[in-house]
Structure formats: C-alpha cells, structure tokens
Design goal:
Oligomer: heterodimer
Structural class of chain B: mainly beta
Structural class of chain A: alpha+beta
Largest sheet of chain A: 5 strands, mixed
Helix content of chain A: 10-25%
Distance between the termini of chain A: 40 Å
Largest interface: A-B, 21 and 21 residues
Strand content of chain B: 35-45%
Shape of chain B: globular
Order of helices and strands of chain B: EEEEEEEEEEHEEEEEEEEEEEEEEEEE
Radius of gyration of chain B: 19 Å
Strand order of the largest sheet of chain B: 3-2-1-27
Number of helices of chain A: 2
Helix content of chain B: under 10%
Chain lengths: ~100, ~375
C-alpha cells in the first residue's frame, strides 16, 4: 500500500534526481502529510527543509496536494494521506 | 576597513562579489582595475543578500547566502570562486526547535577575527545572530542576544526585522556590536552572553520619543581594525560617530545633502576616511537632485566632499542599499557600489574618479570585494 510523493524539478537535486519517491506504508506507517514529510526527512532532509520551516510549518509559497486537493484548504500538514494517495509538492504561482 | 568586508592583501587580483535579486556575479580585474570580467549568474533566480570571502587559515573560500522565493535560505560556499558550490544536505542556518522564529533570510556574513580563523558570524531575519566555530559546517543561535529582554519590542523596518550589521573588535574576542532595523545598535563585552543597547544620541525620527534607549533604525555601522572603538553610523535619518564603542554618539552630518541613506564604507587603510551615498529621504529613496554622488570624509566626519568624476550628474534616479558599497585593500583603494537599477560603479583611486563597470545587472543588493593571489586554472 504505497504513498507516492512527487518531487518538483527544482528540488530533485536534493532527492538524488528522483521525480517520485514511494513510501511503503506497511513498513513506514503514514497517516498524514506531516507523517509523510517525517519519513521523507530521513533520506531527503533538504527536500523537507525546502517544504517546511524549522518550526514545521508549510513555507508560504509552497503548496502540497493530496491527490488533487490543496492541503491549504483542508487540514494543512495534518491532512490525511490514504493508502495509494499521491502527495504532490509544488511551488506556488508567485515570485519576484 | 568595514568589518563587513572581507578582503586581504595589497597585491593580486580583485574580485567583486555582487549579490542581486536574481543571483550572484563575480566580477574580476587585475590590480589596474581598468578591464573587468563578469562571471555569472550564480544561483540564477535566487536572491543573494550576503556574500563574503574568507582567506583566513589558508582558505580561499567564498560564502554566499542564497534565498529561493519558494524554498527558503541556505548558506553555500565555494573553494574555487564559484566553479563549484556546496549543496548542503539540509538547511544549515536555522532556529532551534520550539522557538517562535523561522529563518527568512541571511543578511550578513562576517568571517571573524584573524585569531579565531574558524569562527564565522551570520546576521539574519528575523533579527538574530548565528555563530559557527567550525568554518560554517554547523551554526548556533547566539541566545544571549535572542533572549535580550528588549527583543519583543523591536519593530521591523521596510526590509523586515533584520540583523544586517556585525562589527568586531579584532583585539578583544569578547567584544562585538550588531545593528538591527529597527532596534538600533547593541554591544556585547562578554562574548555574546549579554547585550546592551548603545544608542545615546541617535535619533529615531519616526517615534514620538526621538531619543529612546532602543528602537532606532540603524542602516549600517562600520569601524576600522586599527581603531575599532571608533564607529561610524548611517541611520534612517542621521549620520553619527562614536569614539567609545557606541556609549555615546555625535552628529557628523556636516555638509551632506541629506543625512538619510543606507550604505557606508570605511577606507581600508585610513581610519579617518569613510564613504557614504546619501539618499534624498525615506519618502523618495533616490540620490538627491538625481545626481549620483559618493561623499567622502577624510577627517572622521568633520566635513564631507562630493565625489562625482565619472558618475552621472543628471537624471540619475538611483538607490544604493546598505550592503552595496565596498572597498578593496589595494594601496590605492578601489571603491565600488551597485544600484537597485543594476549598475555597478568603481573607482581605483580612493573615489576620485569613477567608471561604470557593468550595467543591466539585476537589482543589486550587496557588493563585497577581496584581493586574492592570482588564480591558476
């Protein structure tokens, strides 16, 4: 029962080039986005640092989706991640 | 020289480290400083507000604070002047767990004293000081300053609540000062355990009490290693000097067109000589009368003279930010500055004559320099 995490191109240099990371929830239980990021931090700490601040809050110009739902409009990092779901990390449409 | 400038030597090549809102550029010349070569952009798309060269301990290391609009701030380094840069496995300057602060941006990088070649300081937003004692491999928050009881009443300036200036006493490892917009100037005499506001005589024009203990919007402070107790301060309105490490300040805005400004730079060899670039006002942040003039004092602020040869004196609506003015360490000092409109100017004769080194760069927020031994490819 995997959860798939999609890594945006700017962060792939911190995921050893991987566009997706698969988490086997039978081995590493994950019920929320926060859990998923905690598992990701073991192997890809820079990816997670880029998504969350050191106080474990989502950075203001980063969006995380669970399937097609933007977690900013659900439960934030506590949004549930069902088995077989896809967690997508994206830069917000913003910049200078 | 300005403690926020890392330069060494009086022979070799000069490199200007130019930080912009869209990346960094390394701009090279030989000692003549007539022809320049631009290398970059490094970190395209990321803003670079702080740069430094660290040549202590046999190193030749460039330090760069990069900030992605989306992905946060990281301190990177290069031992080959930007051919390769480190990519830390995780963000390396960060507040400890459980505080109410997360790093926004690194505003200043300062290699420490020659006697402590592994020590580096970083000033950040939200206002705090970090220290590394292992050449930047690991960083610790200076809790003495973070826990200062004044801190909850510090207010952010236009650039955010940032610690943008660090000045050290090269002879006393326990003494240093910092400046925060807008909190003012603070000094420690015990290695960072305790800090006290030192703003007596510095005006806060934007407050009902114009001379508070703290709350001033200091824009830059510089000192010279041969006379570290003498400080020069460019304020958000006000130009000051202290001869006692900030215990008291006197107004030295003698003959300048405006005492508002951001940038300030010490001459590398003369503790009486300082450069500033006045800005018209906080409401109109361009050089006065649209004339691009660097002002120089050669008598510690008793008088100032405009330096204009080679600089545009008409329709120059330019803004120069707090870290965008620097000097090299050649005997005939080079002085350099960058503008928000992306122009880079330089002088190889202490500011007497100027040339435009580059135009069309992204908006410049930081210019630092170093004289280095000739590179071998």
């Amino acid at each position: 029962m995997p959860i798939t995490v999609e890594i945006p191109a700017p962060l792939r240099s911190h995921s050893r080039g991987r566009a997706t990371v698969t988490i086997d929830t039978s081995q590493q239980p994950c019920t929320s986005v926060r859990d998923v990021l905690a598992v990701m931090a073991r192997d890809y700490p820079r990816v997670v640092d880029s998504v969350m601040t050191e106080q474990r809050e989502l950075r203001p110009h980063v969006n995380v989706f669970v399937d097609n739902e933007n977690t900013r409009y659900t439960e934030g990092l506590d949004t549930l991640t069902p088995n077989d779901s896809t967690v997508t990390i994206l830069a917000a449409i913003s910049g200078g | 020289m300005n403690s926020a400038t890392s330069s060494a030597g009086t022979t070799g090549e000069v490199v200007l480290l130019v930080g912009t809102l869209k990346g960094a550029f390394l701009v090279w010349s030989d000692a003549s400083r007539r022809e320049w070569r631009i290398d970059g952009p490094h970190f395209p798309g990321e803003s670079v507000y702080a740069l430094a060269v660290d040549q202590r301990g046999g190193r030749r290391r460039t330090l760069a604070a990069t900030r992605s609009f989306h992905w946060g701030s990281v301190l990177r380094s290069s031992d080959d002047f930007g051919k390769t840069w480190t990519e830390p496995d995780s963000h390396n300057v960060k507040f400890p767990d459980g505080l109410d602060a997360s790093l926004v941006q690194i505003w200043q990088i300062l290699p420490g004293r020659e006697s402590e070649p592994d020590v580096i300081y970083a000033g950040v937003e939200p206002a705090a000081l970090f220290e590394s004692r292992d050449t930047g491999k690991s960083w610790n928050l200076v809790r003495g300053l973070y826990d200062n009881p004044d801190r909850p009443r510090w207010q952010p300036g236009g650039g955010g609540l940032c610690l943008h200036t660090i000045v050290i006493d090269p002879n006393d490892s326990k003494r240093m000062g910092i400046a925060v917009s807008s909190a003012g100037f603070y000094r420690t005499d015990d290695g960072g355990k305790n800090w006290r506001a030192r703003n007596v005589g510095v005006r806060a024009q934007f407050l009902p009490d114009q001379y508070p203990e703290f709350g001033q919007c200091v824009h830059k402070v510089v000192n010279h290693p041969s006379r570290p107790e003498r400080l020069f301060l460019q304020n958000h309105w006000g130009l000051y000097r202290s001869d006692d490490w900030g215990d008291s300040w006197i107004d030295i805005a003698n003959g300048v067109p405006s005492d508002f400004g951001f940038s300030m730079q010490m001459h590398p060899h003369d503790p009486e000589t300082v450069y500033i670039i006045p800005i018209e006002s906080d409401q109109f942040r361009c050089v006065p009368e649209a004339k691009l003039r660097v002002y120089r004092t050669s008598n510690a602020g008793a008088s100032w003279e405009p330096l204009t040869n080679g600089l545009p004196q008409k329709d120059a609506y330019e803004t120069i930010l707090r870290d965008a003015l620097t000097a090299d360490s050649f005997d005939s000092a080079g002085v350099y500055f960058g503008t928000r409109s992306g122009k880079l100017f330089g002088s190889s004769d202490n500011g007497d004559n100027w040339m435009e080194i580059a135009g069309g760069l992204p908006s410049i927020v930081c210019v630092k320099s170093a004289v280095v031994a000739p590179l071998t490819s």
